[in-house]
Amino acid sequence: MGSFWVFGYGSLMWRPGFAYRRREPALLYGYHRALCIYSLHHRGTEAFPGLVMGLDHGGSCRGVAFQVAARDAEAVRDYLYEREQKSGVYLEVEKRVHLKGAACPVAALCYVVDRRHRQYAGVLPRESQVARILRAVGPSGRNVDYVLNTADILEQEMGIVDGPLHKVAGEVRARLADGVLPPVEPVVLPPLGQRSGPSHPIHEGEPIKRISSDRS
Fold first, then answer.
1. What residues contact 56, with CB distance under 8 A and at least 6 apart?
2. Cα–Cα distance measured from residue 9 to residue 39, given in angstroms and rounded to the nearest whole number
């Protein structure tokens, strides 16, 4: 297994958890960062899902690309699979990302949300996102920390203000300051194994492939 790149847009930016050779600001076209996934294993539970980010279709996304050395490739791929694919909500795909200052894009492993998965939340009203984020806690910690850390690393380290994310983060901070927790709307997820609807179509010629579909 050779060297490869990984594109991080959420917690991978500030907590990669794997060995890498290079870390570069990167831009991905065709997808945007969104709080569109109900988290059952990291920042929430089946009883009270949190909200985490996925790459959803349309727009663009600024994040961080990590280059993994060939000697670490197998271990890192196994680590990422275990971390990101507990429930299969992401599609592991290879996309071209543009590194800051580089003339040509590089192919990178990206985690794109599967819109047919039971954990796909779609576009929730901001107040619903804030209410859930304030309360949700999972094995990896508080949902609040996940959202605020991601917003902070984007703005403070990369000089990026992600409009939707930073608006949610701002309202979360305001609620924490005033101590008022808004009511949370209950969510009922489809049963395990049930698909929720048609996935987003892949445009003809788009360089996408399922990297780990042979894993169980």
1. 31, 32, 34, 36, 112, 113, 115
2. 16
Token pair in block for residue 20 = 């890498």
Q: pLDDT tens-digit profile of 21-43?
A: 999 999 999 999 999 999 999 99
Instruction: Say what the pTM is.
Output: 0.85
For 146-183, what is each residue's pLDDT tens digit?
A: 999 999 999 998 898 999 999 999 999 999 999 988 99
Residue 72 is encoded by which pair of tokens? Answer: 């670490």
Q: Quote the DSSP letter at residue 22.
A: E
CA torsion angle for 150, 152, 154, 156 (degrees, to 10)?
Answer: -160
Average pLDDT for the chain: 89
Residues 55-93: pLDDT tens digits? 999 999 999 999 999 999 999 999 999 998 988 999 999
In angstroms, the CA 95 to CA 207 distance is 7
Q: Active site residue: 46, 74, 82, 84, which one?
A: 84
Active site residue 94: no
CA angle 53, 167, 110 (to 5 degrees): 20
The number of residues in the chain equals 216
Q: Which helix (H) or strand (E) holds 126?
A: helix 126-135
- CA neighbor of 120 nearest in space, from 178, 186, 66, 54: 54
Local structure of 169: helix, strand or coil = helix
